[in-house]
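Go through this fold for my students:
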Amino acid sequence: MNWVARRFEGRVHYGWVVVGVVFFVLLAAAGTRATPSVMMLPLEHQFGWSRGTISLAISINLALYGLAGPFAAAAMQRFGVRPTLLVALATLAAGVGLSSMMTSPWQMVAIWGVLVGGATGVAALTLSATIVNRWFTTHRGLAMGVLTASSATGQLVFLPVLAAISERFGWRPVVLIVAGAALLVIPLVAWLLPERPASLALRPIGETAEQPPASTAPPKNPIKVAFSTLGSASKTRDFWLLFFSFFICGASTNGYVGTHLIAMCADYGMTQVQGASLLAAMGIFDLFGTTLSGWLSDRFNARYLLFWYYGLRGLSLIYLPYAFGIDFFGLPLFAVFYGLDWIATVPPTVRLATDVYGKESAPIVFGWVVAGHQLGAAFAALGGGMLRSSLGTYTVATMISGGLCLIASFLVLRINRPARRVGVAAT
């Protein structure tokens, strides 16, 4: 790995190479998480499974994706980023590949719900927060924006292609392609991802020689660290404001729109490819919106950024049922405004967590906040499917999602100012 670092010496700090490697890891994980939305209609047609049944597996996946986050962050502190990530990617590839043989709903719940959900929880936002806090002293918001945008790029790269393959060849080739993508990033992690800047005799980007080096405390039990950090953080109001606002974030993005938009489009006579292309278009706009959000987070009050992000997202969702009735500008207008805002909430939320709880504890605290995000996603994935099954329409679920976003826009204004810090134990 040192020879790779020497190739970049004097040209670019190796921290940006690390961002590039993790970007591809998160891209593959994002494509994997998006795959069930492409599989929903084929599984419904082939096996007769209801959308509520399929949504149950997806909701378990989303919940475990979030709940694994704080333990993954603690495991990265104990065992190292690279070993933890390699085990997760191997598990992910094996689980997705194995799902090509499933024929019963319980198998989808076990594989896509439990196995894949837990593995993708390692290659998640907590990984981004860990990398950014280790490799960056300045430009953290920009780096976090770039890494968060990988989820949008995952949709952009995977969804239209996977939808087209699913329509022509069925869902089984889809899962094999996704498993192959997870395998491809394993060598990148093994060869190009060092543990810390100190492993290459470097300092984090923006850190001067006068600043003390990062602490190297002896490894601790990751489960104890995760729960100890939760116990300390949960005593503060800021944690719950971050947790519940991010719960709504998850409910209104990958939980509801990410899971149900393709099926919702089918209700209005659109094909799977058209629905997936709409998600991909939103991914393009989010790639710019989230990266810009990271840049803005380095310069402006994160609470006010979140107020506008949640408010505009809520208005976009309330507009969505009417967009299908507008011939030309309806859905493209939704794709632009909602897409720019898809996960732009992440960089300012990470900044608030870091400012309030400190650089060392922030990744684990943020891991628990992400758990709230994914519990919200699981709630919306299951609730959206159940409401669609019982009412025959997604309109009520869409309005509920939009209303929750408007509530979140006011919740975030109550989070304490960044200058006020709260110590969190990590023992």
Q: What stands out?
A: The chain has one domain: 9-196+219-414. The domain at 9-196+219-414 is CATH 1.20.1250.20 (Growth Hormone; Chain: A;). The mean pLDDT is 85. The radius of gyration is 21 Å.
